[in-house]
Amino acid sequence: MPELPEVETTRRGLERLIVGRTIANLEIRERRLRWPVGNKVAAELEGRRIGAVERRGKYLLLNMEHGALLIHLGMSGSLRYLASPDAPRRHDHADLCLVGGGCVRFNDPRRFGSLHFAADPARHRLLKNLGPEPLGESFTADYLWASCRGRRVAIKQHLMNGRVVVGAGNIYATEALFRAGIHPRRAAGRISRGRLAILVARLRDVLADAVERGGTTLRNYVGTDGRPGYFKLELDVYDREQMPCKTCGTPIRRIVLGQRATFFCPCCQR
DNA sequence: AAAGACACCTGGGAGC
DNA sequence: TGCTCCCAGGTGTCTT
Fold first, then answer.
1. Rounded CA gap, A246 and A224, in Å?
2. What is the 3-class SS of A218-251, one letter each residue?
3. Measured in angstroms, what separates residue A150's CA from nucleotide B1's C1'?
4. Å between A73 CA and C1 C1'?
5. Residue A254: beta bridge partners?
6. Residues A39-65 pLDDT 10s
7. Among A20, A82, A221, A269, whose CB has the most other CB atoms within 10 angstroms?
8. What is the predicted pLDDT for the residue at A1?
9. How many CB atoms lie within 10 A of CB A169?
C-alpha cells in the first residue's frame, strides 16, 4: 500500500515522537517477513539512541550512531506509536520498545514488509541501486529524458522502476501521467523532452499534494497516530474505471501494464 | 542489457 | 451464510 507520500507521512509522525529516544529492545513476534528477521537486528538496537528518522524511497531509516534500522512497509504495512502499549493484535509483528515507555508497533497483514539492520545504509544491497528522489534536485527533466533514451518499455513501468526514480508507485505514477497528459503505454523513448519535463513537474506536484493530505488510504493504511490519509479524494483516474474524466467527461479506462492495474483517460492522454 | 513473468502473503469484496 | 474467485498501495529475482 504505502507509496512515497504514505512513507513520508509515517516518517514525519515518527520523527516527532522518537528522535532522541533510546531503544530498550525490539520485540519480534513474527520473523517471517519478506526476509526472515535475524537475531542480529534486535541485538544491534538495544541501548542505542535514535538520532534521526530518514526516508530513502519507500524505506524508512532509523539512524543510530553505528548504523540504521531499515524498515519497509511492503503492500500492507504500517507503523503506529503507542504511548502505553496495549496487547498486540493480529499481524502486530514487532514492537520497537523505547526506554521510558512507549513503542513503535509494526503491523503488516501480508508480510511483504521488512526489517534490516545496516551498518552502512547507503551501501546496503536494498538501497545502493535506487534512483534519485522525485522531490530532490537530481530528478530533473534532463535526467528523466536521458534515462528514457532507447527504452521501449511503457513510460508508466519506467516511472515505477526504482532504479530510475524512487517512490512512484502504482497510484502516483498513474496520477502523474494523467496530469501530464501522457498515455501510460507510450514507449519511454518516444516521448519528447518537453513532455518529459512536464511529467517531472507533475510527478513532483502529485507527490507533494499527497504528502500534504497525509497520503492515500484505500484500505488499511494509517499514519503513526492511527488516522488514514485523505488524498483519495483527489485521485483523478486511479480506481475510477468507467467514471467520467474530471477534465473531459470521457469514461476512464482500465488496462493492465506489467501486471498492474492502470487507469487513464483515452481522450486527455496521448 | 532490457523486458517480462513470477514469487512472497493475507484480507476484502463480488458473485453465486 | 458460506463458498470460490479475483484483486490489492511493492519489489527482488529469475527467465527469456
1. 32
2. CCCCCCCCCCCCEHHHHCCCCCCCCCECCCCCCE
3. 11
4. 35
5. A263
6. 999 999 999 999 999 999 999 999 999
7. A221
8. 59
9. 22
What is the mean predicted confidence (pLDDT) over A11-21?
96
Q: Give the pLDDT score at A220.
A: 66
Query: Mind listing the pLDDT tens digit for each residue in A72-113?
Result: 999 999 999 999 999 999 999 999 999 999 999 999 999 999
Question: Which nucleotide is nearest, taking the CA of residue A258 and each C1'?
Answer: B4
| Confidence (pTM) | 0.96
- Annotated active-site residue A251? The verdict is no
Distance A240 CA to B15 C1' (A): 21
C-alpha cell belonging to residue A108: 503488516
Q: Which of A94-132 are b and which e, b meaning 16 or more Cβ less than 10 Å from the residue's Cβ?
A: bbbbbeeebbbbbbbbebebbbbbbeebeebebbeebbb
H or E segment to which residue A103 belongs: strand A103-107
Asked whether A220 and A78 are in contact (CB, 8 A), the reply is yes
Q: Which of the following is catalytic: A55, A58, A202, A240? A: A58
Query: What domains does chain A contain, in order, with CATH numbers?
Result: 4-123 (3.20.190.10), 141-264 (1.10.8.50)
Point out the nucleotide closest to A174 (alpha carbon to C1′): C9
CB under 7 Å from strand B: A 32, 34, 76, 90-91, 109-112, 150-154, 157, 219, 258-259
- Taking only the tens place, the pLDDT of each residue in A206-239 is 999 999 888 777 776 778 787 777 777 689 999 9
**In the numeric block, which cell numbers belong to residue A219?**
484500505
